[in-house]
Write a structure and sequence with these properties.
single chain; Alpha-Beta Plaits; 2 domains; 8 helices
Length: about 280
């Protein structure tokens, strides 16, 4: 069995991931390297893996390192071992995100959320997802929620488990919509998932709470194009390198009157909690 790994700078990581998923629909392993780069890996028999030129093109101009190695035939079990439960805590609440092959911790006072880490991005382990969940745990549910760019659905499902309703999730990838529907069913919560292209679909869906774990260009597109109804009262924006957070806060502040209430960081990543001012129209 062959392991093919693509290593890329964190700033280009999510863009490269989105492109690689087109070439490797069975799913991608992700880990952070000691030097701060992100490594994505796929497994397969010789002849089954994407060709190296395809990967270089998929990287979209980013500087990547491609490494191949031979692994034992029990790679599928190694892949499962890589995905471990993640515990997120904030404001006296705890949320445990786990893959389906890990048992629930029934004796603990925490919200259990099971996510199958298949093709869709988002298992709770990535820093941007963890930061969003930390901010979400501190909020008191007060109505509807929409998850923009839902990936596996982990953010929308967490919101539903915390009491936000109804919850809508959108993504331009059909695989992400399917994964969100399946993961919501596994968690016995209602999440209405649908395809929507944030770059070309016009104003973004809105709700009192908007969750947006996106790349910087997509966040700026949403700020520019706006929402298809009243502006959100609360918005969690992530997918950002720390030096990009101020730009996003200013974009939503000037265009929609959303002011920064909180900012959390982990490593080189940041997430923002934005809120509408009651005095603004």
């Amino acid at each position: 069995m062959i392991r093919l790994a693509v290593r890329v700078a964190a700033a280009d990581a999510e863009l490269v991931l989105a492109e690689l998923l087109e070439l490797a629909p069975s799913g991608i392993e992700e880990r952070e390297l000691p030097d701060g780069r992100i490594e994505y890996a796929v497994y397969g028999a010789p002849g089954e893996l994407p060709a190296l030129p395809e990967i270089e093109v998929a990287a979209g101009g980013a500087i990547v390192e491609i490494v191949t190695s031979v692994v034992d035939d029990d790679w599928d079990q190694q892949w499962k071992a890589f995905h471990r439960p993640v515990l997120i805590e904030n404001a006296g609440r705890a949320l445990r995100v786990r893959p389906p092959w890990e048992a629930a911790d029934d004796g603990a006072e925490q919200i259990d959320l099971v996510v199958d880490p298949g093709q869709a991005f988002g298992t709770g382990a990535h820093a941007t997802t963890r930061l969003c969940l930390e901010l979400l745990l501190a909020l008191e549910p007060s109505g509807a929620c929409v998850d923009l760019g839902c990936g596996s659905g982990v953010l929308g499902i967490a919101a539903a488990k915390l009491g936000w309703a109804p919850v809508m999730a959108v993504d331009h990838e059909a695989e992400s919509v399917d994964a969100t529907i399946a993961n919501a069913a596994a968690n016995r919560v209602g999440v209405d998932a649908a395809r929507f292209d944030l770059r070309r679909g016009g104003p973004a869906p809105t709700a009192p709470l908007v969750l947006a774990n996106l790349l910087l260009p997509l966040l700026l597109d949403v700020a520019k194009v706006g929402f298809d109804g009243p502006r959100p009262q609360l918005m969690i924006a992530s997918g950002l390198l720390s030096e990009q957070a101020e730009q996003v806060a200013e974009a939503f502040g000037s265009a929609h009157g959303l002011r920064e209430l909180d900012r959390r960081s982990r490593g080189e990543w940041s997430a923002l909690l934005l809120a509408a001012s009651p005095s603004d129209p």
